[in-house]
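User: I want to check something. If I give you two sequences, will you return the structure for each one separately, not as a complex?

Assistant: Yes, each is folded on its own. Here is the first sequence with its structure:
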Amino acid sequence: MHLHKLFLATAGMAILAVTMDPGMPVSAAPLVQLIPDEPMDSYKPEGWSDEDSYLLAKIAMAEAEGEDTAGKALVMCVVLNRVESIQFPDTIYDVIHDDGAFTPVVNGRYEKVEPDEDCYAALDMVKDGWDGSDGALYFERTSKNPTWHSRNLDKLFIYGNHTFYMERGDDE
């Protein structure tokens, strides 16, 4: 099962309704969080700065250089899922630079790479609304051996050389 977030704007408030049924009418979905005065387009592409777009393309290059366009887009989606999650910082920059969150930031690779044309193609996919992440908040290079991720998180899927995860219990 996967959670589906539905946002409604009403009287200056953003209301987050969560349902496991994507066909459920919003009015029937339980309300789990009220966010006063939160702009509804804060995470939409038109709300991103050019710098945010560059940061997303850069982290995709650092994390998924050998992956196809969708693989790069999935890395961007994980960053954006974290921005939207109350468990993580609320800006693209802060998510990417969160202490220890992304190996290329820790080991210096992130500072050395520049996004290529394919990273910008992935960015365009994401800006156009593509999201194949199933709400993933984590990913790692796929391993045959148990890892912290595989022991502590719920596996969602494998794409290319990466395995994608969410917190345990997020889909219940």
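And separately, the second sequence with its own structure:
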Amino acid sequence: MRNRNLNRLFIASATAITILVTMIVISPLTTQNRTFAQGTEVAAPGSDLKLSRASVPIDIPLAKGYENGHEIFFIATDVSDQKTADQITKMINFTVNVAPVLSQTPDSARGQAFVFTNGVPGKGPNGFQIPVLNAKPGDEGYSPLVQINMVTWKNESSVKELKSVQEIMTAQQSGQLSLDKTNIIANHPAVKWDGGSMKIREDKKISSDSKYVGGQVLNIDTDKMIVTMVAHRGWGPEGKTIYYIVTDATPDMPAAMMGVSNAPNDEKLATTAVDLFQFMNGINGSGPMGFQAGIGGANPTDKNYTPIWKISFNEWKDPSKARVLETVGDIVAMQKAGMLTTTPAMGGKHVVNCPFFDPATVFEHENKAYLS
């Protein structure tokens, strides 16, 4: 009888704790076919990690520019300068991350964007014509990370709309305008361009069981200027819930698998990229390899945050002893215990553009029409 009463007391206490945790966080962190304390209990073979809201359809504002005379549509997710981030956030009503690390982008890995400070009125950032970009995905000079160049007409009586870098350079050489090359770097991944776009998923109903691969875009609406993408749930370095989208990657094979643009210049960013740990075996889950969700080395508000991530693969030496890991510290502890090996993916050359978002941003812009 005494044991039975203790069991009832334990169950009641566990229920109360579960209710309390559910009230504190946005949504329940995990449900599994076992109970566990964070990173401490051994999982049964074949265990599943069921993260609630593991995949969320999110509407992100599109911006429009010109590239070699053609329209190009892109998104703004991160910028190296606080003032510019605030300006873009206000303009598009979508939180843009500040990522000072982007200012360290090597010159050879920078695309170029030209923003007008005067001239033809339009829907550009300063109320004038839309910006001009130097390249699109598939071009040798394409990079999602663009250096901002400010374009100013010297004589506004002779202004006209310019649609290519060549036209801008010709006007500069003839003395019609001036260029101010800033060190502001913005993450502007291309979504749709002349002759192409990011891959659109065939499976458009999103749930926590949706496959990670096969495309990251649900819809591109250039009339409403919205792209609907899949935001994936993961953890920050201390176990805080984050979401991220995937826009481009290198090499080509993983980029094709995820359904994103191949951006070879991303490889040049490996030296400033932050680690993103994905799992190759162990607990089944919503990660790209079909196992538990990944862990990033920075939160969107951290000083070392960048949307550019260098992928490393975690592999359990004995998958039957796998446990759920939620922090970078958990990974280090398992490495020291000899239970986990961590290897830079593809010799350290697998780099992915994954802008991170706070859950509040994701749910503010959630598109429920795509929920399963």
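Because they were folded independently, the notes below concern the second chain alone. The chain has two domains: 62-192, 198-370. Residues 62-192 form one domain.
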